[in-house]
Amino acid sequence: MIHVKDLHKSFGTTEVLKGLTTEIKEKEVVCVIGPSGSGKSTFLRCLNLLEDITSGQVIMDGRDLTDPKTNINDVRTDVGMVFQHFNLFPHKTVLENITLAPIKVKGLSNQEAKDVAIPLLDKVGLSDKADVYPSSLSGGQKQRVAIARALAMNPKVMLFDEPTSALDPELVGEVLEVMKDLAKEGMTMVVVTHEMGFAREVGDRVFFIDEGIFMEEDTPENIFHNPQNPRTQEFLSKIL
Amino acid sequence: MIENIKGVSPYLIEGIQLTLLITIVGVLIGFVIGAFIGIGRLSKNKLIYSFSSIYVETIRGTPILVQIFFIYFGLSDLFGINFDKITASIIAIAINAGAYIAEIVRGGVQSIDKGQWEAGRSLGLTSSQTMRYIIWPQAFKRMIPPLGNQFIISLKDTSLFSAIAVNELLYQGKQFATTTFVYFEPYFMVGVFYLIITIPSMIVLRMVERRLDV
């Protein structure tokens, strides 16, 4: 589904990603963990070209993102993204947040888009919030709306960039529940996270990234109980 | 005194209509210019960026009086372009306000969190769709207070067009003064007439701001 080949990313003279190579299969849930500044968010943002790729290749569902001929907007409709700070549109209602892209990008009518949005709101448990503005929602509710918004484009892959890091601790659970349901339904997911419990329970594989390199990638079982790389051991000993 | 006030008022009522016409039409055109130039100042395209920047800095760096003389006399002299006085005034306000509004637009757009762009783009919206549906509506709200200010500044700037004998408010007062040799009442009343427009404008602006909660 996603092929990453020798991915490099520099900001000015600082090299953040130093040659990442991996493959993520359909329906796989990959959790990316690592210390802050390790490049895990940058890696994720390269997968839908929110960051330009300095060198190397990312092939998303058969489409080469580094090929200038690839229509990046087309690719992005297949790749949903959920942000740490939700990034809901504050001037639009919850429903409008979800229907905007289906209407403007896919050309759905208002009614068709609504028919897509309502079941999704139901799925994230917020059908009663369709007509309110994001400012009246809690962080957990905002993030669930953001997930519904991404799902409205019917993506093949979902990217999560520290989806629970900005939430009050008691609100983390409700967001993780939605993500677990999504994983169960067979969504291909790449999740940058600090929630080791989630990584262990839901992840098919865990990537440990440090200094712009995949230090270790393995099943959660092996990463958490029997890490091979000393950097992984050190990182896990600090947080577990 | 009262007699002189009564005497000058019809002139000023005529003048203020022209002042308002020049200001409103000029600022509206200026807003269109400002929107394009302001967004141009954020462009990654070097040509668009340079053009926009040169425009803004040239206009902001020269007095509006020079600009109106250039438009009215200068263009006529070199290219034979003869605008009538009112058209020349509207163009001067539009070009001048356009430069300042461009900065307002740039600031407004830049003040919107980068995450809003990213959210729009990640959903597959093009950059112009993201601008139109996500960034602009939010940015425009924040532009309203400075746009209101610019309207008031431009309104007062129209008094400079008395220098090319446009029959706007100040010129009308001056005409009365120089023909009657009465100076206090006409200029006092010219000031009052400006305030009749500017003070309610500021109050309306304050109300709009509060309504929009910006």
TrEMBL record, chain A:
Known CDD domains for this protein? ABC_HisP_GlnQ (cd03262)
What keywords does the record list, in alphabetical order? ATP-binding, Nucleotide-binding, Transport
InterPro entries reported for this sequence: AAA+_ATPase, ABC_ATPase_HisP-typ, ABC_transporter-like_ATP-bd, ABC_transporter-like_CS, MetN_ABC_transporter-like, P-loop_NTPase
List, for all copies, the residue spans of the domain called ABC transporter: 2-236
Q: Which domain of life is it from?
A: Bacteria
The UniProt GO MF terms for this protein read:
ABC-type amino acid transporter activity; ATP binding; ATP hydrolysis activity
- Spell out the Gene3D superfamilies in the cross-references: P-loop containing nucleotide triphosphate hydrolases
Q: Which residues cross the membrane?
A: none
Q: Which PROSITE patterns match?
A: ABC_TRANSPORTER_1, ABC_TRANSPORTER_2
Protein name, as recorded:
Amino acid ABC transporter ATP-binding protein
Give the organism, scientific name: Terrihalobacillus insolitus
Automatic annotation (TrEMBL), chain B:
Q: Which UniProt keywords apply?
A: Amino-acid transport, Cell membrane, Membrane, Transmembrane, Transmembrane helix, Transport
Question: Is the keyword Methyltransferase assigned to this protein?
Answer: no
> Which biological process annotations from GO are given for this protein?
amino acid transport
Lineage top rank: taxon: Bacteria
SUPFAM superfamilies, per the entry: MetI-like
Recorded GO molecular functions are: transmembrane transporter activity
Record-level GO cellular component terms: ATP-binding cassette (ABC) transporter complex
Instruction: Assign the protein's first listed, main location to one coarse class.
Output: membrane
Where does the UniProt annotation locate this protein? Cell membrane
Segments forming domain ABC transmembrane type-1: 16-205
List all membrane-crossing ranges. 20-42, 54-75, 187-208
Q: How does it sit in the membrane?
A: Multi-pass membrane protein
- Read off the PANTHER family from this record: GLUTAMINE TRANSPORT SYSTEM PERMEASE PROTEIN GLNP, MEMBRANE COMPONENT OF AMINO ACID ABC TRANSPORTER
NCBIfam families recorded: HEQRo_perm_3TM
Family recorded in the similarity comment:
Belongs to the binding-protein-dependent transport system permease family. HisMQ subfamily.
Protein name, as recorded: Amino acid ABC transporter permease
What organism does this protein naturally occur in? Answer: Terrihalobacillus insolitus
Record lineage: Bacteria, Bacillati, Bacillota, Bacilli, Bacillales
